Amino acid sequence: MYTISEFGMKTGISTRTLRFYEEIGLLYPSERNASGHRLYGLSELATLQQIQSLKFIGYSLQEIKYFLEERGASMDHLESSLPLQKKLLMEKRDELNQAIDSIDYVQGLLEDGHSMTWRHLSSLLQSIECEEDQKEWMKEYFSEDFAQQYFDLTKEQRQELDKDWMLILADVKKLINDNVPAHAPEAKQVVFRMLKLLSKSMPKEELLTYMKEVEHTVESGKMDDFNFPSFWTPEEETYIEEVMKAIEQEMKA
Question: Which residues form the HTH merR-type domain (predicted)?
Fold first, then answer.
């Protein structure tokens, strides 16, 4: 028999973890010596090996406890649960790969010298995480072919688009900070760059249809429950709207 410290050293499990396993009813010491110290033997070693094996393939401690108590560690019951466990692990792997790709993506933007706010960072990460929701959202405003074409862009193409938008965002922030009026030529120039960027990634007929639909939605006060992630602050959106109105009035004059 081994004391808890001896058992921990032989198995590579910390005494803190062993005490925690006892606390949650997962692994109890078989005996205690005259001094009241926990004692572990071969039976506890076998149980610990089962715990570590199940933990290694992704089962939670609560699930492991269920196996050991309710199922008696039956291999039949374990076998029947493995397909679902594999599916869950594959989904987790996909999520981790997506998270790693997102880190690489954002790191690439920052290394290129683009400044980024928390709002913009959240928008980029939401955009990546909620791609399927965005795809459905785009299909409501654009043709299905265009929506698919947009999401078929390569990582490099999307990164270039994001870089262009970040440059425009920085210019809009500067215009606002410098109190440049909406009718100023430099303010209009930024909006023209925005429209040019949109036209590069969107067919003209798609862009016109979308802008009319958005204008109608805003005027009617009926906004969709799903909000497309945006890195623009309300102040920046208001400023851009004022510049657009100034351009429109100038064209009518």
Answer: 1-70
Distance CA 129, CA 252 (A): 42
Asked if 4 contacts 38 with a C-beta cutoff of 8 angstroms, the reply is yes
pTM of the predicted protein model? 0.52
Phi, psi of 187 (to 5 degrees): -70, -45
- Cα 129 to Cα 102: distance, rounded to the nearest angstrom: 9
Q: Say how many residues make up the chain.
A: 253
- Whether 165 and 116 have beta carbons less than 8 Å apart is answered as no
Q: Worst-scoring range by mean pLDDT, 2-16, 70-84, 128-142, 185-199?
A: 128-142
What the block records as the tokens of 42 is 């071969």
Best mean pLDDT range from 74-88, 187-201, 215-229, 235-249? 235-249
CA pair distance 253, 91, nearest whole angstrom: 58
Q: Retrieve residue 10's tokens.
A: 């032989």
Over residues 155-171, the pLDDT tens digits come to: 677 777 777 877 888 88
DSSP structure string for 100-145:
HHHHHHHHHHHHTT----HHHHHHHHHHHHTHHHHHHHHHHHS-HH
State which amino acid sits at residue 54. L
Residue 221 three-state SS: coil
Q: Which domains does the chain have, with CATH numbers?
A: 2-73 (1.10.1660.10), 131-252 (no CATH)
Nearest to 8 by CA among 24, 37, 35, 36: 37
